[in-house]
Specification:
Blueprint (H helix, E strand, L loop, with lengths): L1 H22 L1 E6 L4 E7 L2 E6 L1 H13 L4 E6 L2 E7 L8 E4 L4 H17 L8
Parallel strand pairs: 1-4
Antiparallel strand pairs: 2-3, 3-6, 4-5
Length: about 120
């Protein structure tokens, strides 16, 4: 009986530890409209966020230091980091992005560039 009780307590503690650590993971999904610019350097990518997304990131990072933050881009996993300091810059650096994420961000970059091309004034 003592073995069953001890095993039950250990399982319960493991379950509680999993629940606590899962609760400590924050998430931020960046949609296409949350990204103003994309810069590439090999498998590394830098995203300049739109003001609303930048404010959201600043709030998350300034009030949750020590917690884990998982960032997704258009639903695709991008990075998971421990928050050590507030991010005020609105710049997100994704190191060693997956090929799928790189491809998606290249599409986003093309879309951004297409909407920011100068309008011809010739008639």
């Amino acid at each position: 009986m003592k073995k069953n009780l001890a095993a039950g307590i250990i399982l319960m503690l493991m379950f509680l530890a999993i629940r606590v650590s899962a609760a400590e993971i924050l998430s931020l999904n960046l949609g296409v409209s949350d990204i103003q610019e994309v810069a590439f350097g090999g498998n590394d990518v830098w995203l300049k966020l739109a003001p609303s997304a930048s404010s959201q990131l600043e709030h998350l990072t300034s009030s949750n230091q020590g917690k884990l933050l998982e960032i997704t881009v258009d639903g695709m996993p991008a990075m998971k980091i421990h928050i050590r300091a507030a991010v005020y810059s609105g710049i997100v650096e994704i190191s060693d992005a997956s090929p799928e994420l790189l491809e998606r961000l290249q599409e986003v970059d093309k879309r951004i560039r297409a909407t920011h091309e100068p309008v011809s004034t010739t008639h």
